[in-house]
Design goal:
Layout: H1 2-12, H2 20-37, H3 43-54, E1 71-77, E2 86-92, E3 101-107, E4 120-123, E5 129-134, E6 139-147, E7 150-158, H4 166-181, H5 187-202, E8 205-218, E9 221-232, E10 235-245, E11 252-259
Antiparallel strand pairs: 1-2, 2-3, 3-7, 4-5, 5-6, 6-7, 8-9, 9-10, 10-11
Length: 260
């Protein structure tokens, strides 16, 4: 039945069945609608619902895994004081299940004990204890730490083709630590990201840095722009670096470079 409806939608929109890209977009739209109809919400809506329910601010890690997602949504589970009350944020790729990623936030008084799992412990940059668990292949990876009023659980698929590993989960946690501990202006964390990624891209030293301001594009998109000067040996040049992010959740979306 759903397949017939989908085909009818394709034909009514004048999309050729051979145009795979347009068909994928339409399928993604149907899938996103199904998520919302089953109780999912926009990420920022789920965050605000849990902030209102728990009476405390919610902060998500600004950095996302370096993979593409087709869908993202959130759920605030607020079951009138139940032990499983928490916030969940999902990122999925319909075509690559190995890219699935989830953030769960539990109030510290109701945090998950997870004593049945064998964790590898490490220490984040501010001496926060982090725990990492890697299950058998085709199960999951779990990265756990506490910050502010919340216990954070970062979950990624554990498959042979997975591109989200312990290093990526650690960097995501560090991005939250840096954002919450920083006493600098909000743009500072994006400036740090701009410098780090530009040095990695060009393999050169950044010898000068200028913040050029923020542009708010919509309720879901904003940009911070920086002017960097690079040098290595006798070679030097400038690059405009633009970091695109969500202005409410402060989550990283993309970065672009323009040499001058």
């Amino acid at each position: 039945m759903l397949g017939s409806i989908l085909l009818a939608g394709v034909l009514s929109l004048g999309i050729s069945p051979g145009n795979d890209q347009e068909i994928k977009k339409l399928q993604d739209s149907y899938a996103q609608q199904a998520i919302f109809e089953s109780g999912g919400a926009l990420v920022e809506e789920a965050m605000r619902a849990c902030e209102n329910h728990f009476g405390t601010s919610v902060f998500l890690p600004p950095q996302l895994p370096p993979v593409a997602f087709t869908h993202q949504y959130g759920r605030c589970y607020d079951m009138e004081g139940g032990l499983d009350e928490h916030l969940e944020i999902h990122y999925e790729n319909r075509y690559k299940p190995e890219h699935s990623y989830k953030i769960e936030l539990y109030p510290l008084e109701n945090k998950q004990q997870l004593k049945h799992l064998s964790f590898e412990e490490s220490e984040l940059s501010d001496h926060t204890t982090a725990k990492f668990y890697e299950g058998p292949i085709n199960t999951l990876q779990l990265f756990v730490f506490e910050k502010g009023n919340w216990q954070y659980l970062l979950t990624a698929a554990n498959r042979a083709s997975s591109e989200i590993r312990q290093q990526e989960l650690t960097e995501i946690a560090e991005s939250l630590i840096q954002a919450m501990n920083s006493k600098d202006p909000v743009y500072a964390m994006w400036g740090t990201l701009a410098v780090t990624e530009t040095k990695r891209k060009y393999n050169m030293d950044v010898v000068d840095y200028l913040y050029m301001g923020r542009t708010t594009i919509s309720s879901e998109l904003a940009e911070e722009k920086f002017k960097l000067w690079l040098r290595k040996g006798a070679r030097e040049f400038g690059v405009y670096v633009t970091v695109v992010f969500h202005p409410t959740t402060h989550q990283f979306i993309s970065i672009r470079y323009e040499e001058f």
